[in-house]
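== Folding task for one protein ==

=== Format: two labelled lines per protein ===

==== Paired sequence and C-alpha cells ====
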Amino acid sequence: MDYDKLVPAPTPDTQPYWDGLKEGRLRLQRCADCGKVRHYPRPMCDACWSMNTDWIDAAGTGTVHSWTITHYAFHPGWKGDLPYILLTVDLPEGVRMNAQARGLSEDALRVGLPVKLGFEAVTGDLTLPVFEKA
C-alpha cells in the first residue's frame, strides 16, 4: 500500500507499542521497579530512574484533555486530510496520549468528552492509533 506520510521508525524501546497497535491493542510501558506507567515509551523511568520495564494492556478509553485543529499541512502527505483534529487524551492509566480524531466534529469537542481508541492500518507494518467518540 502506498502511504505518502512520514512514518515512525520503531526502536527497541518502542517496538512493543507498535506491535500492540498492529494487534489491535494499546500497550503502555510501565516501570518494572516502581510501577509508574509512562507514555511515550522510553528507556528510563522518570520517577525512579530505573531501566527495567514491562508492558501493560491499556483500557483503550479516555477523556479529551485538549485539541488542535490543523489547517496547514507541515508535510505534503497531510494536505488531503486538512483540516484534521489532533486530540490530547487523558487515559485512565494516568498518562496522556495524542492521536487524530475520527468521526468527531469540531462542534462536538469539549474537555472531558469520553473517547475510545481505534486502530488504522496504514501499511502492512504500521497501524496508527486514532480516537473516536465513546
